[in-house]
Amino acid sequence: MFTVASEGSMAYIVVFLSSLFMVGSVFAASVSTVAISTLTSAMNQRMLDMKDVADYKAAHHLPVEDMIREQSVLTRTREEAEESGLDGSSIQPFIQAQMDVAKAIQYRYFAQWLSQPPDRTGTQRSLDDVRASISLQDKKILEAISQKLLAGGFRESDKSEIFSLLQAPHLTDADKKMLIGSLVHVRRIK
Description:
Blueprint: H1 7-59, H2 67-83, H3 88-115, H4 127-150, H5 156-165, H6 173-183
Helix pairs in contact: 1-3, 1-4, 1-5, 2-3, 3-6
């Protein structure tokens, strides 16, 4: 049996529902801010790891380009993206952009070391350790993208914030634009 709500209880319901909406909006904004912070932190760490990759390759006379490794990373990361609820075909340009920027950073270290050789007096990280760190950062990046898309996606102000928060050495403004340009086209699986 249904009863008609009184005018006072109806006002209470409206206030209650409005409060829920405001709390939901604040929560979504908070998730969005955390996602951008996590995303840029992981992207910066991934790019910082490129110094160790370049150092290892330089010390062992290995080329920066490793197409077999790139294909492996692309396949693995695309699968992980889909596990995070991201559309594999939409994430692929972003993954490729990250790898292209990573190679550019490595080349820039190589160029720097032509006139200023690296100090190798300390312990050099193994390539396996560096790759494990990169893989961990990739997972954090994918999860942050997924959270950001769940919270409403990337707004214009987010692009500016990401641009300002990406601060790794040897990262150029053109690199940042390429990364952000490919990032904003990532979609969730429908």
